[in-house]
Amino acid sequence: MNRLLTLGLLTGILIAVAGYSQQSNPPLPPQPKSRTVDYFRASHGYGDGLTEVVDLSQREGFQAVKTLDDLAEFASKVQGAVGFTAHPNFERGTRHAHAVLWYTKLSSTRSSWALHLFDKQEAQKPPGHAPKAAALAAAEAKVSGKMDAAEKLIAAGGKNGVKLEGSFSECEVLALAVLRLGGSFEHQGKFTTGACVGCRTVAPGGTPSACGIGVQKKTHWNCCGSTNEGGYCNFWKLLASQRADK
Q1: What does the pLDDT read at residue 210?
Q2: Cα 46 from chain centre
Q3: Which residue has the higher pLDDT, 24 or 145?
Q4: Sheet of 115-117: strands edge to edge?
Q5: What are phi and psi of 145, to 5 degrees?
Q6: How many domains does the chain have?
């Protein structure tokens, strides 16, 4: 009997000691993952020029990407990527992000989402600095590759001018090719006194909701700001001129 009591007492002591040990040494909180890919926020943006990006949301595995560190690792796997960019609220659930392959303008940081580069020296370059020669060569090849398509669009448009369809980046490349060939563009807006659209980008002196001509309540094409009802659309020509001056 005494032996059984002794064994029971010892068992109780061991259980109590183990419980105390667990209480006095709680498990450590999970440690954040160490960064596997170095990246640096650029001192410039990538707007006001041609760019080549890859939509990361369309790539397998994107669902697991939650943080900028995750995004850097994910983007680094895209062949030719020099960095990445994402919506300002990406880490809070706005799931828009791109790997950046090249860009032809080191613009103001206000002209684009924040740009993160894998090369620290490139990231430190200020707005207005010359782009990489490889980026300019890639852009030239991209525009040159659309010359045949532009020639066909000019022929199809006839006296009405070229009508462009597609994403902005696709249209911009085609527009540059059309301009090189001396082509003109069909208006893609309305001749009106309000409802400014593309004209806000190329007609200076306006407000966030109206271009400089719309502010004056003058009738104009809301795609480019032209006050000539019978002319061609000047949007792409004016945009190209603006970007060349920056």
Answers
A1: 93
A2: 8
A3: 145
A4: 40-41, 115-117, 83-86, 97-103, 51-55
A5: -70, -10
A6: 2
The per-residue pLDDT for range 43-52, each reduced to its tens digit, is 999 999 999 9
Backbone angles phi, psi at 24, to 5 degrees: -80, -15
- Provide φ and ψ at 120, rounded to 5°: -65, -40
Same domain, 167 and 108: no
The answer to whether 115 touches 126, Cβ cutoff 8 Å, is no
Mean pLDDT of 71-94: 97
pTM of the model: 0.81
Q: Which residue has the higher pLDDT, 246 or 223?
A: 223
In the predicted model, what is the mean pLDDT of the chain? 89
Q: Same domain for 237 and 153?
A: yes
Measured distance CA(233)–CA(157) in Å, rounded: 13
**What's the rounded Cα separation, in Å, for the pair 200 and 223?**
8
How far apart are the C-alpha atoms of 197 and 185, rounded to whole Å?
16
Residue with tokens 């943006």: 45
